[in-house]
Amino acid sequence: MRRVLSFLPIFVVCVLCLSVSNARAADVGELPKSAELFPFFIMGDDLPKVWTAPDSQKVAGDAGQVHVRDGKFYAGDAPIRFWGVNTCFSMNFPDKDDAVQYAKRMAKFGVNAVRLHHMDMRDIWGKNISRTQTEIDPEQLDKLDWLIYQFKQNGIYVNINLHVSRKLDEKDGFVGYDQRPSHDKGVDNFEPRMIELQKKYAKDLLAHVNPYTKMSYLEDPCIAMIEINNENSVAASWFWGNLDNLPAPYEAELQKQWNAWLAKKYRSTADIREAWGCKIFPVEEELALDGSFDDPKTLENNKNWVIENDGISKGRQEITPEGTLKISVETMGRNPWNPQIYLAKAPVKGGVPYTLSFRVRAKEACKLRCGVSENHAEWRNLGMSREFDVATEWKTYTFSFTCSADDQNARVSFSGFKAGGVYEFDDISFRAGGVVGIAQNEKLEDASIQIIYRNKDSHRATKNAKRDFAFFILDLEDRYWQEMYNYVKKELKAKAPVSGTQLQYGAHYAQAKLDYCDIHAYWNHPSFPGRPWDGGNWKLGNTAEVNVLGRSYSCATHLANNRVYGKPYTVSEYNHPYPNLYGAEGFPILSSVAAFQEWDGIFIFAWSHTKEFSPNSTPSFFDIWGNPIQLAHMAACYNMFVRGDVQSGFDLAGEQIVYELGYEQEREIHAAATNGYHRSLQSIGFVNDLPLRKVVGIRTTDLPVRDARVAQTPAFERPEEIAAAQQTISSTKQLKWDGADVKKSFYQVDSPNTKIFTGFIQGKTFSYDDGTELKFGETLLDWATVSLTRVDTNRWLLAATGVMRNTDCKLGEYDPVEIKDTPNDQLETLFGKQISFCKTRGKAPLLCEGIPALVKFPAPESVVVKYYPLDGNGRRLQEMTAQRKDENFVEILLSPECKTLWYEIEVVK
Fold it and tell me: How far apart are CA 828 and CA 841, in angstroms?
């Protein structure tokens, strides 16, 4: 990693936009308050006058092909890091004039890599999509070629994603479109024709010669990396239950491969029955007494049927004249499972199969959930939790499972109700008995051993059977990755490093066998209570990562713990999505931690999802092109991560932490997993605050370790008792987190050439090693993010950000009916809540908060400090001179009257 010289460390925060004669020293209590939000949108067209990103002056690939050496990315003979963005959908196919501007603008913000994402959902097929998704439209390909050429000329490398979101349909001979998982995730890991079409697409795209560069993407050195399949693993799809209801052709193919795997391990059906502990249990007496509800006095006479409200929820149950159990819900409770109905005091035995069956209908189609759990603390699940569809007509369901433990007081529950909903149940039956293992008619000899589903018919699966199927799935995904990798690297002969998919979707080992490892993370990703990606019904957590950074789960520390030593490590999707009010913290925290940990690439998600983006308002959760409180800090992030302003923790010998992971160990972890969205390796000893102190990573003990710096480092042994951290300081002394107040924490980066503050203010003074002191006035959230980065020997670029929202945006606590607007001076009350603006996202212009602050910073008497508030294009608005405090320091004031988020600072001798 190249380094820059350490120049005179001066940390300047901002200035009061008044004449010098009016500037004076001030107590923090005299500082101005945050005023009304003002219009501000960052375009950055004149940024080169302030800051020239080094990579924008080069042609990407001129130094040589990106390759892997000693577990790092190199371009030619020099190590290289990538500060990148994602471009999605039509953004990858702009008109040619727009492509020129896009590339130049990205480069001005320090972007030196772009990940081409979601090309294959629709846009790359162009006019062909009405008849096939297997033939690239030449006109669309020409637009892509021109865009990549422009990236290359502006020093921007390219990460090509192969499969992301194409889902094949009947036009290309694939039935059951609606029954298959989204984007064919998991299915395309084992379905032979889908795999062949992935290879065809790879060849059509990569082997094609770009007419503007005169090279194919197999050989062009501006192609920095190739990703086979985004967020996709048959292991993850099976674990999530997405393979439970496959259409017949795909189910048959998976069963065929499952039986072939079994045939390599077992000689006969008898061997399988013995290994899996298959048993037959006689059907026992009914446990759901009066489940037919024929007696209108059932609820009076039977104390076992209970409706649970929590003091806020209002739900009632009654027996209808038709002999059904009717549930009417007026309001929901504080928890999503209230109200619920349940059968109490059901005695169950571990290892015994049970079957729950019932009929159900509702006033409106919906989804409900049933489960069997303890009817007492700790309320643990006993082996069954299922979501099911409910229609306006009667539907019958039968769910079987093997109970996980003995319990004399189990609860059989139904939940997931909604306010205003009316539901009816009938013929509820709960009995012990059935087959554990495989049915009598299933035989290895005729390949009829059934798939072990994650949820459906799971009563058949013993622990050993599930373990075998988990191992089969892991072998299946590994075979897929190896097949696709070998095709791209060995048959097509692609020169760029190749990855499979993201860590935590399958096995670390499967990805560690490829050229580099990649991962994704989002802080407070939006969720959708109804239809997926419904822009009219969503919510998003409004919390600050800084409060949990070294204390519990945080994105930055979680990503660090999952890194595999000896492999280049990239984060190809990351964001703190809008409208999280603390979203400006994300990139400065991650880029500084990534630099300390010595990762290899970060790709923000996303620059834009559309080529039709119109400026002056924030269009979406993720697009940073419309997010000035994030764009303003891009220069500092680039300088910390790419330029090397933050020192690597590898510079200090013996300050690295090694988590060890064996091949069989990981397989057992996957086989034993019971919940969670991602596969967790927490059991190998992860500690949340360690990544803020030392370099951390995983050593795969059954693969060659390519990083000699940790090859002999003893494995970390996690203490049995670990107190929650309150403060952390990195081994380099440059990263500092203070979490003494669990609700008002802050984080600082203190390096000679870039300094960061992000967090809660509380009237404190924040100090840096060179004598810099930073005080804030009153802000809307008692919170701010500030970055200051040196751009040449005598100039700095400063950004100071707070709240951002569109004009007339009705932002407030999530409510499915109506979002009530929260005034700016009350936004702090939304902390920790689920927020939304749904259909009231507002309009242009975008409004931002000015941050009031007072800074004492080092400046000898031999220099004069000038500063220039900048407009959204990076043009100077006014020249001003800092106020001298004494022979060693000056004081600078920041005021919302400046109506800007960034400043150029100049030291004149």
Answer: 19
